[in-house]
Amino acid sequence: MQEIIIDQRFQGPSQSANGGYITGLLAEKVNGPAEVTLKAPPPLGHAMQISETADGFALMDGEQTVATVRSVAPMDLAIPPLPAAAAIAEATKHYPGHHNSPIPFCFVCGTNRQEGDALRVFAGPVKGADMAASPWIPHASFADDTGMIADRYVLAALDCPGAWAWYGQTGDHMLLGRMHCEALKKVAPGEACTVTAWPISRDGRKVYAGSAVHNGAGELAAFGFATWITVAEVK
Predict the structure, then answer these.
(1) Sequential DSSP letters for 215-232
(2) Yes or no: is domain 2-71 CATH 3.40.50.2300?
(3) What is the pLDDT of residues 75-91, one digit of tens each?
(4) Is the pTM of this model over 0.90?
(5) Smallest Cα–Cα separation from 44: which of 107, 2, 1?
(6) Full DSSP string of 108-152
(7) Which class in CATH covers the domain with range 85-102+112-231?
(8) What 3-state DSSP class applies to 96?
């Protein structure tokens, strides 16, 4: 059993950790494609435990299961082609969170965060396409001991863009419920990456989205298929 404390730096909503960061953190516990399920808001600043289960690992807060991860088969997800560089640059200018974000200090998409302290992925609508996109230049502070960006941060970058791809279409806020995620290629600090996301379908309160990170050469570095839960309010 491993003890872990999630620092305030990795917040999503003000009271809990960012779901994408938790997804990336737990996905590192298994080899290959992972399915992470969030069962409760991950608390910040106090000790939790990561314990082995019959089919993977669980993040526990005492007796409460906060999140689980298990190894899964690769997913055949249709990844839309990258928009043109000019369209990506224009899309991020129209990121809704610049003016109307319920989570301005979010580790992934918060505008009130500084370079090197958070990911700052600002995915806005791509003109003429049903998708959102953002340039992303990962900071060296997120590198692992190989000098490349740690997978947990590349996978975390898949998170919030999926919700912003649905912006204005659900009538509610959204919280990450589950993500199938796959890290395919390493990304270097300072590399000019792109994060894209697109809505897929909706089933009641559940909303489904895909997201992807492409590296500086335009190659697919990671992708995710997320289940989001619509909620009336994010605190």
Answers:
(1) -TTS-EEEEEEEEEEEES
(2) no
(3) 999 999 999 999 999 99
(4) yes
(5) 107
(6) TT-TTS-BTTB-----EEPTTSS-EEEEE---GGGB-TTSSBPHH
(7) alpha beta
(8) helix
